[in-house]
Amino acid sequence: MEDVLRPLAVIGGSLAITLSVGWAVDRLLRRTDARHAETPLWGLLRRCRFPLQVTVCTALLRGSYDQTHARVVREHASGIAQFLALVLIAATAWLAVRVSAAVVESSYYRYAASAHDPARVRRVRTQVTLIQRVVTAVVGVVAASAMLLTFPAMRTVGASVLASAGILGIVAGVAAQSTLGNLFAGLQIAFGDMVRIGDTVVVDGEWGTVEEITLTFLSVRTWDERRITMPVSYFTAKPFENWSRGGAQKTGSVLFHLDHSAPVAAMRVKLGEIVRMSPAWDGRDWNLAVTDTTPSTMVVRALVTARDADDAWTVRCEVREQMITWLREHHPYALPRITTATVQPPRTSPESEDRRLTRLDDDLSKDGTRQA
Prior knowledge:
By secondary structure, this protein is an alpha+beta fold. It is built from 14 helices and eight strands.
């Protein structure tokens, strides 16, 4: 009977203590979050409840499994200890990642709530994201190394591994040159303020918004919901357009190719009416001027300002559509006309043409005689 009750007591006691600790910690965090609503840290730390329970339960079992005196435990004591050690290391790493993520996200939310510059908020968001990814990678590497060191064979070969570390480092550096380049490029982007999450960029002729930045790649969401994934080293080696750097305000232009008889003054008045009715116009400035001419048309450019690239695109489309509609309805002569066919001259013989010219000369001579 004791062989059954003792394992149940050990395992049941560990589970009971784990559930109690998890409940107590969650209740404490909930009450603290209610008292300090100005910071989301305590609410974010509640996400760590499950990894905390796994860590506590594994630690309790790791320290008390040999007290069960069960036959299975005695026969496989080393294997059980090895398994519990691996689970404990993994759970501890998981808990550390969750706690660090909560602290970093809380700091970002508090800064974003108090900051008034959207560009600085995007910059901090990019840095926070990459810092969190670096912390996760470091914790993962340390946890994996600790798990490997729990095996006796790995501790035995440790000396030989350290002895050959120089050669392995050179080989790894050559093999992972591209990966390391992207890694350092990601850190350079994060702290060099070259591009940030939420920036509007033009890359290889594609216009979109930076959606994600990792240590190795960058994702751009285009206007038609496509995703362009590029290595971060591209942004440190090649030129690209960043429409959000230095401020999100933009000036958009609309070109009209019109007939030379187009009413430019009336178009200028109509443009003012259009932009004042557009919610995408930020109210800063607008202008209309003739910028170029050709033998058949003239180029009229309308300039409008907007709060950001998206609003600039919207107000440009509105100006283009409404101005063309207004010209078509009230000034159709201003629209350019394209000749699609040439008029062929009448077919006449050379003799008839000579007789026509002779009669024309005679008529002109008679008219001159009468006037004299």
